[in-house]
Amino acid sequence: MKIWVDADACPKVIKDILFRAAERRQVNVTLVANHALPTPPTRYVTALQVPKGFDVADNEIIQRMVPGDLVITADIPLAAEVIEKGGTALNPRGELYTTENVRQRLAMRDLMEQLRSTGEISGGPATLNKQDRQAFANQLDRALTRALGAN
What we know:
By secondary structure, the protein is of the alpha/beta class. The protein has helices spanning 12-25, 56-64, 76-84, 99-117, 130-148; strands at 2-6, 28-33, 45-49, 70-72, 88-90, 96-97. The chain contains 5 helices and 6 strands, in the order βαββαβαββαα.
């Protein structure tokens, strides 16, 4: 199992949780972004810089991931592709995407996009809070335990 991170918009605090988990569980984490990213001095974390462009990082993740890999992303269309390819998708707020909920999330995303474009609502998601970070850490730990055992 490998962890892929859609890192362009991934909060630093979530990356820090991933870095600690990579070292503790000895699992490879690859940050994929269209700009250079600092990584800690560990053999378990690497960064992959891709060219700038719409969905370039997402496409790179889909191309490289294999069934059983975990992808960290807030991008719902990417999460849907990950699930379709046999991977697991987890967002930075600790929500595990499933075949059951990803279609609903896509529909809600499309609705919110439409409402924003008409000016009926503005802004994006709320700031990541302590409960979100804890939910992410808990879900990550569960996913790693399922995939790797209790190492």
